[in-house]
Design a protein that fits this description.
The protein is α/β, with parallel strands linked by helices. The protein contains 15 helices and 13 strands. Strand 9 and strand 10 form a beta hairpin. The protein is globular and about 60 Å long.
Length: about 375
């Protein structure tokens, strides 16, 4: 089946297991227009109440002195690490082997900022304080991602997190939080966002993932660091003439979804428990620690994908977009993120859909 036909089937679906409900650009912009006050004035090169007010709101939510809105998290994180590197007079920055900077950004931290990335621990587990202690070179900064996306959204225990933070601060090592999915961590830790962020010197958060914004991110931290980050933002070409559509979309996403994060996480636990009963399914982590998990399905990749498309055509329910090879022989996998859409699927219905999926795949 060609990509156009797959896309047609997807567009015909009305219910989804993963993420939020699909919206067309027209729907997104119409809702944003309704959300926008008629008297609102646009920002210009980062100046104006629409952007400064939002930056202050997020700084307060995270318990930081200041914040700056940028078009992307890639920009936020490279800039933060560059600043800490120069202030610590060391190019060495340490992070998990599956860090976004390492596997998704074409080594930009190295090519653009001349930073030396030191990988901590092993790809399939969280790194520990012992892994950090093994680093022989002097570190400028340590980056921690909460949750660790590439291993199913795993989170370190609060005690482990505070131990790493304390150890780094005793040695003058800056701690930076990759909080692309920080919003989803709060139910697990049971602590305010500001208390979690207090363990870190700088924090990056995203607005286009679970919050459903168009794009955009914020870097928060000490006032002098954020002032310097604004200079680097201009150097990166990120100080756009106007950012208000992204800022307004981020504000709307906070309003619509932040208060529902616990529901998404609770539903993820229910879905994991439902699917873990299948002998053909492995869930990682189980139980989920946020609203995301990795599902490993035993079976043939092409047959499972074909069965899922047939189910989508018949029921107009979309289960997953693609299946990837795994390190487990005979298994394929996908990342499942629970959002608004899954709340409208009962656990019994989800179980029935996967029963059908495996039965169909075995018939082919």
């Amino acid at each position: 089946m060609d990509e156009q036909e797959v896309d047609r089937i997807y567009r015909d679906c009305t219910r989804f297991l993963t993420h939020h409900y699909r919206k067309t650009p027209q729907q997104v912009l119409s809702e944003l227009a309704e959300f926008t006050a008629p008297e609102l004035r646009a920002d210009r090169y980062g100046q104006g109440e629409v952007i400064s007010g939002f930056e202050q709101q997020i700084a307060e939510l995270l318990g930081k002195d200041a914040a700056v809105f940028m078009p992307s998290g890639t920009m936020c994180q490279q800039i933060a690490l560059r600043i800490w590197s120069e202030r610590r007079s060391s190019p060495n920055v340490a992070f998990h082997p599956t860090c976004h900077l390492e596997i998704h950004e074409q080594r930009a931290y190295q090519r653009l900022h001349h930073l030396n990335g030191i990988l901590l621990g092993e790809p399939q587990r969280l790194f520990t304080l012992e892994d950090v202690k093994k680093v022989a070179e002097p570190l400028a900064a340590l980056l921690i991602e909460l949750p660790q996306r590439e291993i199913g959204g795993q989170l370190p225990a609060w005690e482990d997190l505070t131990a790493i933070s304390g150890w780094a601060r005793e040695r003058g090592i800056a701690l930076h939080l990759d909080g692309a999915r920080l919003w989803e961590c709060q139910p697990f830790y049971g602590r305010a966002y500001a208390e979690i962020a207090a363990l870190f010197d700088t924090v990056y958060v995203s607005f286009y993932k679970i919050l459903g914004g168009i794009a955009g991110a914020i870097l928060a931290g000490p006032a002098d660091v954020i002032a310097e980050a604004r200079i680097w933002q201009r150097r990166h070409g990120g100080n756009l003439v106007q950012l208000f559509p992204y800022v307004l979309s981020a504000r709307k996403g906070l309003q619509d979804h932040l208060g529902r994060i616990r529901q998404y996480c609770d539903k993820a636990g229910e879905v994991a428990a439902t699917l873990a009963q299948f002998p053909q399914i492995e869930v990682m982590p189980n139980p989920p620690q946020t609203n995301m998990m990795h599902l490993f399905l035993r079976g043939d990749r092409e047959k499972l994908a074909s069965a899922a498309l047939a189910i989508a055509q018949e029921t107009r329910i979309w289960l997953f977009s693609s299946l990837a090879p795994t390190g487990i022989p005979g298994y394929v996998g996908f990342e499942l993120t629970i959002g608004e859409a899954a709340l409208d699927l009962s656990n019994e219905e989800i179980a029935s859909l996967f029963e059908t999926l495996f039965a169909r795949s075995e018939e082919q």
